[in-house]
Design a protein that fits this description.
The structure holds two protein chains of two kinds.
Chain A lengths: L1 H32 L3 H7 L11 H9 L1 H32 L7 H13 L4 H11 L18 H14 L2 H9 L4 H9 L4 H17 L2 H6 L8 H10 L2 H11 L8 H34 L4
Helix pairs in contact in A: 1-14, 3-14, 4-7, 4-10, 4-12, 8-9, 10-14, 12-14
Chain B lengths: L11 H7 L1 H23 L13 H4 L6 H8 L1 H34 L3 H16 L2 H12 L5 H7 L16 H26 L3 H9 L4 H26 L6 H6 L8 H4 L2 H10 L4 H29 L7
Chain lengths: ~290, ~325
Amino acid sequence: MRSDKASRLGFHLILLFFSLCSVLPFLLMVSSSLTSEEALIRDGYSFLPRSLDFSSYSYLLLQSQEVLRGYGISVLTTVIGTVSGLAITVLYGYALSWEGLPGRRFFSFFLFFTMLFRGGLVPSYIMWTQMFHIKNTLAALIFPNLLMNAFYVIMAKTYFSANIPESVKDAARIDGAGEFRILLRIVLPMSSPILATLTLMIGLGYWNDWMNGLYYISSDKLYSVQVLLNKMLMNIQFLLSGVAQSSGIELSNLPATGIRMAIAVLGVLPLLVAYPFFQRYFVRGILIGAIKG
Amino acid sequence: MNKTKKGIGRSGPVKILRYWPAYLMLLPGFVYLLINNYIPMAGIVIAFKNFNYQLGMWKSPWTGFSNFEFLFRTSDAWLITRNTLLYNLTFIVLGTVLAILVSVSLNEIRSSAAKKVYQTSVLIPYLISMVIASFLVNGFLNSRTGFLNKGILEPLGMEAVSWYSEPQYWPFILVIVYLWKNLGYQVLLYYAALISIDREYYEAAVIDGAGRWKQFLHITLPGLKTTIITLTLLAVGRIFYSDFGLFYQIPMDSGVLLDVTNTIDLYVYHGLMESNNIGMSSAAGVYQSMVGFVLVLLANFCVRRLDRDSALF
């Protein structure tokens, strides 16, 4: 019995090690964002703030329009992208689950082939910029790549096929309900688990996206939080010059080291706060989509 | 093929008309895939052209295989292939080993509250974007204020390292960051496979006097075999694709490190956006698409023979 306890302790230690490794970098980030600039220059980033100092945040939130605008752009593109992405995903998946639909095999293959073969970045970039002229428009943060993903459509289709009996739909048809009405009033209310999961996965894709911004956005008016972070990582001066202008403080006197971490905290905070609430759907999304994702 | 007798006695067009709402539902997704996926597929012709922004994708003059000849005459072609393959192989091997270690440990402890805390913690890095990850890594590696230099090396009296300009450390850093970010995801998959192994096997093994290690070798590993092989094969199918974010963000696009950080995806990006070398860049992209396509088909063929349900098709 004793060896059993000892080995269980061993497993706890292993898990503790990996959990700490996962979480500690976030602690480093938060604590550094709360440390005064002098302490940061002297002692570097550390896991415990030696003295609490909120000046990085007050500069960012009060003096920088970039951060607030970034949040605005992120929220806007995430909402528009998620709602429309969810709609076309569900519609395509639902139609594919339709028994006996002529051409169903063709539409399945048409979807499926996109997972096997990709044109790649160069033709996509040239198409979006030359044919659709989306450079420096909000559309660039919404349309390329993120709107519909074959895996999610297949997840939706599988759910509808397995959980919505044909008899339920047939009964409604006999009552004279149209197909769109059946989808809205009968099928969707029976599908909340898959809808929640898809909403989360698509939404997370939008919230975390920085690549579309990297490729297609060069105007700082359209930077989402992630794009702003990306620019700042490469060049902290970009954001600071805005802060310096509106606060009237010399650029060199701004707490650049702390601000760098504070803005990263602001970027990740909404996710970390919401995580406990959506973890369930996130886990489910990974588990259903994983093998094929 | 669907073999129900529905629609018998109706002629083709009438039958199709009956399904008009379904086609209407398919339409937006169909148009999106056509634009977002199929036009770029046709656009791989760019690699066989002398691309000119004025003339565009279709009207630029053909050059045959010369872009490919140029590409494969450079040492870059070999370098990016090697890096992409070696990193991915390392990720597959270490990722699988660590994920099994952690998920087996999760399965061995009793307290469900502790299980939940551990599982939640290791999944957090998977949730965040690579940009945030890069800030976190910078917290450790920043040469002036990073924790490694200021918190460890200098207090120990050692010389600070300028991490972002020393290539020899980067294979390790990139592997660690990859594992850190993706471990939770893989643990989730293996843990799900683990809890579906019948407890009775373990009970019988205990009665027979088998220790933990023996149980692991003779029950757990065989129970995970299908999952391990399937996930590995699927990863092998994608071995020609690299995580652009990892190789672009984490080294902060540092040019000095390119020998050890350059992968096919990074090369395509630099050729397109920075050096404006569309020919080589698109040739590298097509090289990736083609080999990638063959590998996915091969991997899927193998998965299918092993476990039909896990196959993509």
